[in-house]
Amino acid sequence: MTPAQTDTDPTQGHAARHVLSVDAMGGDKGPATVVAGLSMFLKDKPDAHAILHGPKSDMDALVTKHGIADRVTVHDTSDVVKMTDKPSHVLRHGKNTSMWSAIEAVRSKEAAVAVSCGNTGGLMAMSMLRLRKAEGVNRPAIACLWPSRNPAGFNVMLDAGADIRADQDDLLTYALMGASYARNGLDITRPRVGLLNVGTEEHKGRAELKVAHELIGNAAQIGDFDYVGFVEGGDLPSDNVDVIVTDGFTGNVALKTGEGTATLISELLRKSLLSNPMSMLGAALARGSLGRLRKRIDPRRVNGGVFLGLNQTVIKSHGSADETGVAAALHLAYRLAKIGFSDKLAARVASAASLAQDAAIHDETGSLGIGTDK
Amino acid sequence: MTPAQTDTDPTQGHAARHVLSVDAMGGDKGPATVVAGLSMFLKDKPDAHAILHGPKSDMDALVTKHGIADRVTVHDTSDVVKMTDKPSHVLRHGKNTSMWSAIEAVRSKEAAVAVSCGNTGGLMAMSMLRLRKAEGVNRPAIACLWPSRNPAGFNVMLDAGADIRADQDDLLTYALMGASYARNGLDITRPRVGLLNVGTEEHKGRAELKVAHELIGNAAQIGDFDYVGFVEGGDLPSDNVDVIVTDGFTGNVALKTGEGTATLISELLRKSLLSNPMSMLGAALARGSLGRLRKRIDPRRVNGGVFLGLNQTVIKSHGSADETGVAAALHLAYRLAKIGFSDKLAARVASAASLAQDAAIHDETGSLGIGTDK
After folding, report:
1. How many domains does chain B have?
2. pLDDT tens readout for residues A277-297
3. Among chain B residues, CA nearest to A257
């Protein structure tokens, strides 16, 4: 049974929601790791299917090796987007790549969500070209999950680096999209949204942040979120906020700073514990607890930057993801596919955008019938 | 012997270099903590003196209690800059505050370096007004120390939040000032300077960063540093770079993100180790090693943001610093005072300023509208 057949089977309803489009190429560790991750994921989700994009003979060998040939359709592609390719190059010369093919499969509705470990700039450029921006969105964003003290264990931060700037309207759109993602991806009924700044006082920060502060506050009701105002870098892991909104330059630096700090501390901790026999013994006794801690802050568990603001959903997995990381990104894709996230998000942003326009013109709050994203 | 007398004693040379100006007020923990930290510091540095700014009766009682009355001159002040005061308010109404008085003591050359735990915005505004910007500096910056894998144990990052923006010329000035600070504060003969961006490829980032990239590269020889090009958030603790240059908005977010991440991990580590008797025993055995690790990443050890680009040096200690933190900031101030850092920095920036002006005639393409997708 091919995914296309599944999609049209009347007994299955929205069956394409079980189908993920997976770019096997372009990750640092090669297609064997991607297929190993896919295999882990498929064994966990018996109703899931995948379309795998890459050179057919290699793909067939890998899926056969993992015993998942009956769950996977291979789309044969000859080219690969390299990590060093510029986005402009990718757009001009990328038609035969596995990445392009992976995006086409969601464009044609054969699959619900696309996942790639490849070049972020290339993936975003290609996704924008082929999937188009959703109505009301000027700049799409990448939303990432940030380990936090919240019950869900994570906060959402966006933009993590889709663009290098964002004006006040973009920041408003990020707030709406981030809230919708938190609701659908993390089950937070009424997400708390904060705007990243250098201080929490109203007079602080750049001019566009002060305008965005007001716009997001005004949109809280229709966006079905609570606006907590300005937050600071130290609030990224806090339990006072669920969604942190910022421009893609700041967000990208913050993300890599957080990861770099966590890596440094892990390194120093390991070195400390191996520094003498007494602490090695101590570490051995505490192994279970330290293992749970390692798991809690393992960046592989939060693998998957979600592209928000396109007509379909694309997920960027870390280029260096191992099979556990790939499987984590696929689980996130599966969850968003099952609930029909792309449609919910589009409806939310489109109706909020028209309201924002009305509000800008008439300076009054209309009562448009929305609330479609859960 | 008062500090003023010390200053003119011919046998002492630049004796004001032993004198620090300390604002006792405005920190979250009050003057008792500041004086306790001062006492720790003075006991460590027998040739150091301090001018302490605050209400005389309170100050006298505190220095007597710590037995440091003979090492401290009190300047009586009645008012305090509050953490919530806006910089504009501080400038208009701050003349009788301890902060103003602390800055006046370096302005009059009675002391070499001023230290305050107070309101950062107020301290910077007042320092700019009274000490004036050094020749060739448009925007002063705050340099902070970042725990790193380098032999010195720290990297320098600036601007940590003196301003919320920086153009290409400001970024060049930050590179020169940061290199001078690394040389004088961390003993790095030829510092390696990097420019913070969202990627290391030359085509990435905002327009002003591409211009600054060229300006800083051209200034490396005269500034006596190596330019390593663009670096990312993950490089802040790396040993590939000593000085990381960025605008004050990004730097402030990065700083607070790093601190927040470190705090979260420490919390989770503690919780993990206390989760069961076996790991508690393990933690007890590894106590020495864990203690050294804690010390290595203790934010109090890196306390002290140095204001660079003024005619004298001012150090901002964390508002929440305890006595160990205050003492750390005073040790940093002492070191910079002893080597005559203010003069060295001014000479370096002034001589490089003419070069910078020549270089700044390069194309300034304003907004190229370049995203990560182009």
Report:
1. 2
2. 877 787 777 777 777 777 766
3. B233
